[in-house]
Amino acid sequence: MKSAILIALGDELLSGIRQERNCGWLANRLTLSGWKVLRIDILPDGPGVLQGLLPSYIGRADLIIISGGLGPTHDDCTRASLSRYLKAPLIIDTEAYAKILSRYPPDMRRNLERCADTQGSLPEGTRPVHNPKGSALGVAFIKEGTRVYAFPGVPTEFRAMAEQELSADLVESNGCMRSVVIAGWAESLLKDRISALTEDDLLQITILPSAGTVEIVVRGEPSKVNEATLQIREIFSEDCLPEGCPSVAEDILRLAVAKGLTISCAESCTGGLLGAALTDVPGSSDSFLGSAVCYSNEAKRNILHVPVEIITEFGAVSRESALYMARGALKQFSSSVAISTTGIAGPGGGSAEKPVGTVWFGLAGACEESTAMNVFPGDRAHVRAWSRNRALYLLRKAVLRVNAQ
Amino acid sequence: MKSAILIALGDELLSGIRQERNCGWLANRLTLSGWKVLRIDILPDGPGVLQGLLPSYIGRADLIIISGGLGPTHDDCTRASLSRYLKAPLIIDTEAYAKILSRYPPDMRRNLERCADTQGSLPEGTRPVHNPKGSALGVAFIKEGTRVYAFPGVPTEFRAMAEQELSADLVESNGCMRSVVIAGWAESLLKDRISALTEDDLLQITILPSAGTVEIVVRGEPSKVNEATLQIREIFSEDCLPEGCPSVAEDILRLAVAKGLTISCAESCTGGLLGAALTDVPGSSDSFLGSAVCYSNEAKRNILHVPVEIITEFGAVSRESALYMARGALKQFSSSVAISTTGIAGPGGGSAEKPVGTVWFGLAGACEESTAMNVFPGDRAHVRAWSRNRALYLLRKAVLRVNAQ
Known about the structure:
2 copies of one chain form a homodimer.
Chain A: E1 3-9, H1 11-14, H2 22-32, E2 36-43, H3 49-57, E3 63-67, H4 78-86, E4 90-92, H5 94-101, H6 106-113, H7 116-119, E5 121-123, E6 127-129, E7 138-143, E8 146-151, H8 155-165, E9 177-183, H9 187-193, H10 195-198, E10 203-209, E11 213-220, H11 222-236, H12 248-259, E12 263-267, H13 273-279, E13 288-294, H14 297-302, H15 308-314, H16 319-333, E14 337-343, E15 358-365, E16 370-375, H17 380-401
Parallel strand pairs in A: 1-2, 1-3, 3-8, 12-13, 12-14
Antiparallel strand pairs in A: 4-5, 6-7, 7-8, 9-11, 10-11, 14-15, 15-16
């Protein structure tokens, strides 16, 4: 079994200002690929730290990954530490740094050029690692049979560079692990439906709840795993997303393109989260037309043409307002389907009749009109996220139904 | 400055199945109380692990905290490891264990009594630590001036026992750590402006970039810290957010309420992210009216009344379209300020003249009209996040200027 030691550097990790996340993530990826992680060390910034450590680690593991300390500021000491440990002077890798800078517009590039002596340097004899997401070069070398990599601590950069450099190591043995993403189910309810599978000793089942979806990861013998995923797809039928489709929003847009539909939204309590989720998907402009975020009652009247008497009689958070909002978006954007959200995200604004967490949804167009209501638990951020996820779930169901007519 | 070393034991932490949380939490509490955390080690379960480590740590720090390995199962080795390290046999502390069991109903108690030789035992000469939340006894001892504690890894138990045993240590001394949040500055530019402070040996400065802001955390002697934060506020003047205000969006809404302004947005490439950021703040409805997410050109025309010839002549991503979009939002929502975003988030849609990452911003209302353009690096998610952050920065500047007129 190949072994790895992971090291995270940063005063902010030791003062608890930031939670260390890179090593936990990489440890999981390595474990799934058959590696053994020997230890994770979280250490302060500072010039002496790595030198004290590396002599006792090099040669003991196949892989050492260092996260952090590669930026341009005074507390970034990884390059200097590696230089002293390797007894190799720091040199600027003009070519590798220029490749990074070419991604930046001229004004940012000028500024970054001044950081070449920090972000663009590495100990002589080591290999530069390209950074596709940021401006600091990574460093790689092999010593006493141990491969050592230093990547920046910014999570997006760390992950991209680890995926890129360790692609041959992070090979999750295909077939013995598969997953199914399910929309709209609570983890606790879902568990009961698959208890026959979780009690099977020959299968290892991990349930990973995410925003609006639950991913069931199945590991074991390939034939057992395939059988189990088929069973899961049968149990949850159309609530399963297609293989390889990670999000409800992406599936909605895929379905809309396939069925020639266009989509619009009218948002109150989600405040733009719904539009943001849909436009997060590349190519969303093929079927997403827009979203009217109407927080004030005047905006609901003027932009979505919700009749003033509807708001006065039933309130802005009501079945009636939700329906008129969806109708308004349908008309204003001339889309084939429209969905609306209106609710009380809190912390204020609740009442006995309509407590914080009450959210109404409206659907219009594509041969149907409907409304739904939920009372979501949690704080403002939770209620808003639940509302976005529920709206996406309802919208996907509506889009799925269109062909059935 | 008193120093601490934190050690977390558990295979599940090294395989990434569970994220380590106890040490990060305690590190934060200790730092706020004026302690220096020297390192956090995450190590596997197993009999040899602690023995290998403790000889080099004891005497080096004032405090060592061990999390995990105290339960009743085969992989819980902390008691046995401490026993071997201290050369003291394990004995059952009947009295201390009985105190724990008295909290349990009879049927559970009978089961737990059978675990006395593991959960109720500790090396002779060490002190039992009561567990108010679970059934495993903790262990405490002092050696070579170092206080050592072992607490169970279950977060609720770990936290309760740490609070109880370290109550005299975890006294947050106000003033020895303060931070300033700065909007709109790149980390690389910012660090040059505060080099006098980062070179001051009596101050510990941590620079934490976040979405659209950089936080400068200053630690040290209270009077030095206060002086340094004043200097930072002078250097970055109005780009500093007020103390206790964590985000640009929150500051915009605070300023808008104070100045009696209302806000609306017109979003294309941000697709709702801008509205979502503003409505993330509780009470945002006091000044945020809404956002027209107009992804299609038809929506830009029909909802924001951008003249068709403006889009045909200059394109949807242009200074002119951005300005008309902001004017449209101002009028449609009847707000006092409006901001717009229109750009090419990618991966498709770029050209030589307007590459992916090109984003125009428009501002209208509140005595001014203006536009700005940036070319942002990175992928779709990056360009969208940069665009949202830049729009918030521009909006805050506009709102700040209103009183100056």
